[in-house]
Amino acid sequence: MEKESGTRKGPWTEQEDVQLVFYVNLFGDRRWDFIAKVSGLKRTGKSCRLRWVNYLHPGLKRGKMTPHEERLVLELHSKWGNRWSRIARKIPGRTDNEIKNYWRTHMRKKAQERKKSTIVSPTSSSSSSSSSSSNSSSPTKGFGPTTEAEGRSFYDTGGVDITTGGNKTGVQIEESAEVYSMDEIWKDIELSEESSNLTSQGMISTPPLWDFWAADSLWSVDGQDASKMDSFPFYYNHMTG
DNA sequence: AAAAGACGCAACCGCCTAGCT
DNA sequence: TAGCTAGGCGGTTGCGTCTTT
């Protein structure tokens, strides 16, 4: 419900997308407020940016996460915690939002599995059942699926921000993350995904293209490199099919 | 075939930070 | 140096789609 002078909200239309892409190509992907204004879109700069970053950006990969990407997410999350954008930068073609969503889903599944397994056999699989609480004594955030009951969102958060004082207890950061996270996670993943033998098929390869994209500036578009953005037809095809 | 529940994704909100005046 | 603004980020929510009963 936007007021006449207000901004539009809700899902973007194809028309809006085309318009946004056009203006981003024109002015680069920096001045979002400006773009929002000149484009005539009744959207905030923020909204435009988000739409671009999460959907319209030419470097975006769509579809399911590859096993390789999943691994990366887990690995990086164990290092950095919920630093989604930071993680996303290491996984070309994936947005922070996507990774965040993936993680959330992932953790929800895990939480459910764990709940089930503890209900069925509270003493079973020794470490895993204790794992969710293994970190709870620490004021730092545990890696495992914290529950809403703990007052934080349930998928919050793995690793510790090394750069900040997340590590208030002085616990060794990387190790504390490792204590539970990677072992547990890998185990779970193997169990749940072995069946689809994704990991054993050498699917670890990121498309070479992505090495290029990643290494090059496109993923970290900095506005200045507008020449690379002349792939407008791509966006258009991408959007219109 | 219909209803209910689960899942996945897109988008918004609010806070924080960096840059500018 | 303080205040302001835009951009960036993480958390959360809403809704459409898919799956199960």
UniProtKB/TrEMBL annotation:
Top-rank taxon, per record: Eukaryota
- Please classify the protein's predominant subcellular localization into one broad category: nucleus
Q: Which residues form the Myb-like domain?
A: 4-56, 57-107
Ranges for region Disordered: 106-167
Q: Where is the HTH myb-type domain?
A: 4-56, 57-111
* SUPFAM superfamilies registered for this protein in UniProt: Homeodomain-like (SSF46689)
Q: SMART domains, per this entry? A: SANT (SM00717)
Subcellular location(s) of the protein: Nucleus
Q: Where is the composition biased (Low complexity)?
A: 124-138
Q: Tell me the keywords, alphabetical order.
A: DNA-binding, Nucleus, Repeat, Transcription, Transcription regulation
Quote a single Gene Ontology cellular component term.
Answer: nucleus
Which terms does the record give in the GO molecular function aspect?
DNA-binding transcription factor activity; sequence-specific DNA binding
The job of this chain, per UniProt, is described as: Transcription factor.
Question: What's this protein's name?
Answer: Transcription factor
Organism name: Sesamum alatum
